[in-house]
Amino acid sequence: MSQNEYLIPSRVVYNWDLKCYPVSNKAAAYLQDCPTLLDLKILNPRIYMAVDTMAQLQSLRIQLNLLRAYLFTCREPIIESLQKKVTPRDYLYEHVHQYSISDLYDISNGILAQQLQNVVEFARNHVINCWLCSQKGFICEICNNPKVIYPFDMGTTYRCGACNAVFHAECLNATKPCPKCERKRKRMDLPLLDVGCTDLSLDDAPTFSVNIN
């Protein structure tokens, strides 16, 4: 048996058991060097509803993923700054549900949530204050308030899952139809303009008489 005790990934994922247990030397070596990423959406998607800590992490991961789209279209130094803050765990902003074994330890002691919060604040401050990134916000077409809103401000905005348009949360939610999607649906429902058939059948084709004299 190993002299140290370890978190058991399956116990964390399925039972939210953050207690460390004695394991064999082989298991200890695996847990220390395991490169496998755990996809919680596949393994246990209900964990986000059952555990407040995971719900908070889920929100931070979504915000970071949305912010990444802004920063990765900005200047190279900004991209590098973001990467340095999470390297070598680039999956933290590339994916929303993946966690490593070492992340489980950082979840239990609160380190991961604090790290993600710091990165989100860094990225958000950049977007708000960057001339280029700040131009990529949205205007809520429900109230037409001229103040720009952003999808990563999840507490005050609602993002349509179909077209990604962003609205104030108080103006639109999942129970109401998205106006942008409604316009698209109506365009698709419009009948094609009947311009008539331009093809002529053989019976309709004109006949010509040819004078060979």
From TrEMBL:
Gene Ontology MF terms: zinc ion binding
A Pfam family recorded for this sequence: RH_dom
Domain Rubicon Homology: 1-188
UniProt keyword annotation of Metal-binding present: yes
Claim: Cytoplasm is one of the keywords in the record: no
Alphabetical list of PANTHER family matching this protein: PLECKSTRIN HOMOLOGY AND RUN DOMAIN CONTAINING M1, PLECKSTRIN HOMOLOGY DOMAIN CONTAINING PROTEIN
Protein name: Pleckstriny domain-containing family M member 3
Species in which this protein is naturally found: Apis cerana (Indian honeybee)
